[in-house]
Amino acid sequence: MRSQLTGRQGEAATADYLRKKGYKVIEANYATRFGEIDLIAKKHKTVVFVEVKTRKNRRFANAFEAVNAKKQAKIRACAEQWLAENDPGGQLCARFDVVEVYINDPAKPPFYLNHIENAFASEGYADERRPAF
Questions:
Q1: Is the dihedral of CA 42, 11, 116, 121 positive or negative?
Q2: pLDDT tens digits for range 53-64
Q3: Which of 63, 85, 112, 123 could form an SS bridge with 102, CB 3.0 to 4.6 Å?
Q4: Are 45 and 92 in contact (CB under 8 A)?
Q5: How many CB atoms neighbour CB 100 within 10 A?
């Protein structure tokens, strides 16, 4: 339960951060049979699928390291589902971002966020200007 609360705090902080950067957060905790995407945001014609990794500190590893190939595949599958439901004409471009949120970082309270844009590519495309699927 405690880690879920920490995760939700990180997602809320990330959503606020993205809004301040000009993104429109259009969905949170989008779940399919393949898995879940923490946040889905849009800026211009790019839909951004955001994986949020929240940690108390960097003592053991950077948070983004938890987004391994298996996790990326699950996120891609969820993104394909979302795009099929919400962009059947294929007008949007897609990008996959990871946001690391560190709570209790004494250097930058209360949260330190590291936004990694285009953290991993969709199958076959690394360029956000091209349709992902």
A1: negative
A2: 988 766 777 777
A3: 112
A4: yes
A5: 24
